[in-house]
C-alpha cells in the first residue's frame, strides 16, 4: 500500500463520515496514509461517493474502504479503475447481484424509509433506539438527524441499489480484503464468503458485532492487515 496516494472511506446506508472515519482512520494513521471519510449527499448517495473517489484519484492511486453500500460502490469503482486502485477493503457486504428481493439490507432500508415518511423522524429514531445496541443506536441517531429531511430518499436509493453481479466480482484485478461480522443478520456471512470466493485476489476476515461495537476501528485494522498480506 506504499503506492497509495491516500484512502477514501465510504459509509454504509444511512451512516455518515464520522463512523467511516472511526472505522478506518486509526489504521490509516498507523500506516501514515491520508484518509478522506466521505459525507454522503442523501439526495444522491452513490453519485456523491463516486465523485469523491474520482476527485481523490485525480492526485494518484488510492485505497478504497467501504462499509455495506460503500463496499459495493468501492468494488464497482475499482473494477472500472484498476489503474487508480491500490486495493479495496470491503466491509460488511450485503448482497450479490441485482435481484434484491431477499436482501436484508435492501428490505431494511425500504421499510425504514416508509416508516419515516409515515411517522416522522423522532418516532422512528425512538423505535430504532429501543431495538438496537447502544453503539449502533447512537451512530444512527446522529447520522439520521444530519441527513433529515432527505433521509427517506437516501434509504430508498439504497433499497433500489443493484449489488455487484458475480461476473463483476470475478473481474476485480486489485487486492480486496473482505471483512464480515459472522453474526450480522443484515449483512449475511454467506455473502461475504461468496464475495471472497469470487474475487480473484481476496482474503476474508471474520469479526463479531460485539467486537465492532466495542471499537469500529477493527474494520480498518483487520482490513488493512489483510491487504498488506496480499
TrEMBL record:
Keywords: Hydrolase. InterPro entries: AB_hydrolase_1 (IPR000073). It holds the Pfam family Abhydrolase_6. The keyword Hydrolase applies. Residues 7-201 form the AB hydrolase-1 domain. One of its GO terms (molecular function) is hydrolase activity. The keyword Hydrolase applies. This is Alpha/beta hydrolase. It comes from Nocardia iowensis.
